[in-house]
Write a sequence for this structure.
């Protein structure tokens, strides 16, 4: 795997982690006590940071670091989860996603915009880092300092020893590399993070390296810190705080049980004057004055007793592999902790499409072979092709199955939408998700997101009432929105339901009459009335709100769903709520088709839309001159396909015409055809751009003979016939 | 970052508004040191600084070092809570001079 | 925006090695035309064409090209002339054209007969005349001199501009005629 591939993988995995993180963040608001959720969020941030480090993506590392720091405080229970905090973290999540997008541009540095955004979010985050606990620590430490100062005045070593020894003090001596600021890292933020691992007992900031004004580069780091620190964490953990600056900086960490000699070495090694460092160590409480004096004098006496500096460095080196392996283990455990989908293989969607196309060709070729075998009349050949057909069918099913994905991920994205929109609206709404494990074709999943978003926003905006109205009605103040999915007879059903006020039949009717969609509402079933809102021309300007509207009406939702060969219907109960039911085919690639002949051409009708076939001659308009047939007392609008498609033989009456009754949603329409040619497996080929605006046709398919035939756009035809029909009815009535 | 300098005779006032971070460090350095050429006392208003990082802190340190070397009297007229908090976190509560420190302005 | 086809006819200066281009010549309504061969995928015999209803004349229909559905354009009709009569030597030339989305699409063009592939040096290509040619000048990439005669080098990118074709294809007959003709209440 070359670096570029690795980077692509990092970006893809990073996005997944962010999705997990977002989902967990949305979950944590409702379940702040669950440590696993917090851990999951933390792990996601940590893994991204770690991997970003491997690629040298400093801007990503430094930003994630701040996020991680905040999360670590949450994890440690030092920071309570609040709505505000979640909001900042969600914003961080979004920004991380933007940063990942930036990674794919290949630019080494962020542009000003992104940088500013990083900085501003980091600042918002850091307000949490510097929150109450740290402030308290500072107060505490200054109090201790005062104590220490008082004790110093007494100059009693023993007293001091007592004061200090009951606290295990770490000592950190930090000299940051000149370039850390340029690399986007802020030393103080590391110390703030350190502060989350324990309590800073005393801190001194050193600028001995700060050059004169003319030599001072504002973007270089000249700052060092001496810190005494109280913590129960392991040395690795504390060392890891400085993971990202360790290489270019000098980070010395002394455990509470460090020996005096080690401090002496520190004093020697640091660039500042020995005495000054010594004083600092005393102020830090790391050494008592007695110890310091003893140390300094012993140093003068017996230099040879000290280990050479090199040995110290060796020691430091010896620590590194350990730290490294710890870091690696951590990374590994993050991976292990993810759900068992770890055994998944990432496959380019295009490869899958190629496979599906090949399987489609295989089906066509198989059908051709079958035809020839049948014609040959050779039993052996027929048997062999039959086995082949069965296998091809299995291959088809498993190939299609490869494209099936769970709808859960799409559903979960709505947690965020619901959260954001309910804040925008000032309503308290929870989203409940069920059936997330229901699978459907990837293409369908991708295309359903938009209509779903519209429906969800619509339900929140218009469906669910404001809290006070709800309470007045005796409902719980919190509104409920549900997303549900399940399989039902070869299709998948997706439901969007709310427990809002429901739709008003009267309003819909008056509006529909207003818009000329219907003449009057008498005799219409409730469901028919509700579904009027999906009619083109129903949504009107005054309905468009910023949220759900965006100038798009429900008719567009319906059209989008119909483009997927799906249907949408709505049911509503006044005061109880509204449910929108979307029915979609499981796959867009292969359907069962019903082949009919019109003139010299064949057309395929999706079999699941065919209700029945009747002989046309049987009722031959029964003398009436209407645009409708009478199907057992039911009024049935019909289309002569031969006329509709201008087939060559149109105009002449055929001998044995048939009517194929198709149903789409609530509507039935008769299609008059010349011949019925039976059912067969249909591989759908899209129309392509050239035919994208054609009407009456939804796609192509290829028969076993290799012939291309057209697939009828039943929803389109039904709609055309219906609107034509109601047009006529109206004319008939007004006449 | 907006740095307003007003000077009269041998004294001047510097008011900072914005963030003292790595992004503004260059500007801060130039504009804060420039007025020091010809003045004896300087008043610094940090009430408009809502974010500070290590580089901002360094500029402040440089400023203090320079004024000290040139025997300029520095007075911090106002300090925002953010700066105050940052400084005390770094154990530097007192570098702005004890008298004025703590006159936090939101 | 330079289409690949344009580049073939006028190789840019930096492609020094490519001063000569190969072209496929073919007959259409008694005239000789040429197309740069880089755009050509294959040439197949005419046959098994499925008509698509309610399409303008120049869209002859679709064919099955090894499992892919490929639209076939009647070039003669596209030029505003008589539709091509299918005869023994009628061929479909499959071309790969830019579909405007940065992607390519296969389109077949119907020609009376395919002649040969030949090289026309750049120096023998003259710009399209602004008038006087038998087809619209924006469909012409240049006039190539072959054996002292001129052949029209077509600008396939222009002729088969997908968006334009699909817009032309969108003109549809009225619904009225199709539904229940005998309705006159």
């Amino acid at each position: 795997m070359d670096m570029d591939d690795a980077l692509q993988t990092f970006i893809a995995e990073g996005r997944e982690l962010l999705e997990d993180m977002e989902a967990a963040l949305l979950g944590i608001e409702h379940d702040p006590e669950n440590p696993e959720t917090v851990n999951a969020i933390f792990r996601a941030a940590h893994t991204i940071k770690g991997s970003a480090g491997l690629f040298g993506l400093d801007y990503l590392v430094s930003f994630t670091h701040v996020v991680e720091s905040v999360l670590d405080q949450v994890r440690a229970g030092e920071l309570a989860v609040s709505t505000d905090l979640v909001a900042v973290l969600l914003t961080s999540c979004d920004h991380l996603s933007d940063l990942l997008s930036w990674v794919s541009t290949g630019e080494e540095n962020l542009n000003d915009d992104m940088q500013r955004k990083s900085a501003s979010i980091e600042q918002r985050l850091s307000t949490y880092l510097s929150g109450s606990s740290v402030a308290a620590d500072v107060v505490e430490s200054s109090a201790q300092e005062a104590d220490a100062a008082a004790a110093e005045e007494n100059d009693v070593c023993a007293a001091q020893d007592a004061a200090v020894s009951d606290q295990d003090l770490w000592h950190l001596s930090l000299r940051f590399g000149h370039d850390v600021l340029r690399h986007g890292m802020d030393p103080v933020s590391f110390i703030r993070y350190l502060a989350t691992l324990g309590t800073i007992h005393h801190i001194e900031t050193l600028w001995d390296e700060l050059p004169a004004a003319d030599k001072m580069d504002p973007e270089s780091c000249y700052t060092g810190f001496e810190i005494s620190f109280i913590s129960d964490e392991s040395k690795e953990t504390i060392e890891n705080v400085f993971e990202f600056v360790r290489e270019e900086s000098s980070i010395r960490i002394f455990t509470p049980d460090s020996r005096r000699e080690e401090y002496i070495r520190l004093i020697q090694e640091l660039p500042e004057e020995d005495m000054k460092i010594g004083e600092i160590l005393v102020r830090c409480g790391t050494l008592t004055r007695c110890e310091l004096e003893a140390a300094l004098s012993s140093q003068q006496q017996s230099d040879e007793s000290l280990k050479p500096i090199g040995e110290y460095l060796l020691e430091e080196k010896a620590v590194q592999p350990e730290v490294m392996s710890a870091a690696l283990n951590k990374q590994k455990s993050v991976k292990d902790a993810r759900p068992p989908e770890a055994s998944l293989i990432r496959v380019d969607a295009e490869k899958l499409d190629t496979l599906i196309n090949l399987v489609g060709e295989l089906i066509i070729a198989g059908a051709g072979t079958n035809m020839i075998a049948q014609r040959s009349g050779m039993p052996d050949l027929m048997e062999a092709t039959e086995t082949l057909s069965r296998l091809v069918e299995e291959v088809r099913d498993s190939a299609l199955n490869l494209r099936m994905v769970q709808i859960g991920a799409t559903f979960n994205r709505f947690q965020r939408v619901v959260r954001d929109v309910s804040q925008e609206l000032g309503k308290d709404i929870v989203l409940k998700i069920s059936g997330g494990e229901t699978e459907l074709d990837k293409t369908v999943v991708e295309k359903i997101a938009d209509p779903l978003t519209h429906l969800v926003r619509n339900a929140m905006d218009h469906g669910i009432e404001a809290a006070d109205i709800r309470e007045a009605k005796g409902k719980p103040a919190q509104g409920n929105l549900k997303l549900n999915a399940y399989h039902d007879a070869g299709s998948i059903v997706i439901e969007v339901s709310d427990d809002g006020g429901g739709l008003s039949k009267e309003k819909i009717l008056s509006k529909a009459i207003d818009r000329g969609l219907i003449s009057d509402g008498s005799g219409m079933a409730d469901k028919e009335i509700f579904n009027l809102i999906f009619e083109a021309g129903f949504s009107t300007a005054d309905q468009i709100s910023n949220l759900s509207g965006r100038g798009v009406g429900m008719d567009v939702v319906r059209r989008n769903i119909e483009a997927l060969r799906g249907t949408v219907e709505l049911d509503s109960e006044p005061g109880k709520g509204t449910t929108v039911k979307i029915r979609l085919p499981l796959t867009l690639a292969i359907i069962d088709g019903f082949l009919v002949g019109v003139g010299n051409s064949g057309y395929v009708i999706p079999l699941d839309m065919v209700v029945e076939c009747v002989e046309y001659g049987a009722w031959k308009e029964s003398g009436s001159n209407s645009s409708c047939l009478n199907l057992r007392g039911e009024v049935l609008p019909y289309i002569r396909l031969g006329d509709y498609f201008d087939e060559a033989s149109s105009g002449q009456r055929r001998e044995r015409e048939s009517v194929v009754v198709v149903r789409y949603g609530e509507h039935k329409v008769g299609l008059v055809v010349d011949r019925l040619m039976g059912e067969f497996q249909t591989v759908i080929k899209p129309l392509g751009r050239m035919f994208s605006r054609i009407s009456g046709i939804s796609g192509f398919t290829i028969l076993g003979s290799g012939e291309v035939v057209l697939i009828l756009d039943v929803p389109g035809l039904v709609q055309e016939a219906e609107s034509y029909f109601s047009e006529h009815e109206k004319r008939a009535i007004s006449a | 970052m907006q740095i307003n300098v007003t000077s009269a005779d041998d004294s001047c006032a510097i008011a900072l508004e914005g963030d003292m971070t790595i992004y503004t460090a260059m500007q801060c350095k130039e504009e804060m040191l420039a007025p020091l050429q010809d003045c004896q006392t300087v008043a610094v208003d940090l009430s408009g600084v809502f974010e500070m990082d290590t580089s901002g802190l360094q500029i402040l340190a440089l400023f203090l070092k320079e004024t000290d070397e040139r025997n300029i009297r520095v007075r911090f007229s106002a300090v925002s809570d953010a700066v105050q908090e940052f400084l005390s976190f770094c154990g530097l509560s007192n570098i702005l001079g004890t008298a004025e420190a703590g006159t936090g302005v939101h | 925006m330079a289409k690949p086809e344009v580049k073939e006819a006028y190789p840019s200066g930096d492609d020094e090695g490519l001063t000569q281009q190969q072209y496929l010549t073919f007959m259409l309504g008694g005239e000789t035309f040429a197309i740069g061969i880089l755009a050509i995928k294959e040439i197949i015999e005419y046959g098994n064409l499925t008509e698509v209803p309610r399409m303008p004349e120049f869209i002859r229909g679709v064919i099955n090209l090894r499992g892919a559905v490929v639209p076939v354009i009647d070039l003669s009709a596209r030029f505003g002339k008589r539709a091509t009569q299918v005869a023994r030597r009628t061929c479909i030339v499959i071309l790969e054209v830019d579909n405007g989305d940065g992607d390519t699409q296969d389109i077949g063009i119907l020609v009376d007969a395919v002649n040969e592939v030949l090289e026309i040096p750049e120096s023998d290509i003259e710009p399209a005349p602004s008038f006087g040619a038998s087809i619209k000048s924006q469909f012409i990439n240049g006039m190539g001199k072959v054996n002292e005669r001129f052949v029209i080098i077509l600008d396939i990118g222009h002729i088969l501009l997908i968006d334009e074709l699909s817009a032309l294809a969108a003109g549809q007959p009225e619904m009225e005629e199709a539904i229940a003709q005998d309705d006159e209440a």
Notes: The CA atoms of residues 242 and 734 of chain A lie 84 Å apart. Chain A touches chain C through 45 residues (CB under 8 Å). Chain A has six domains: 3-129, 132-306, 307-337, 349-403, 405-585, 590-734.
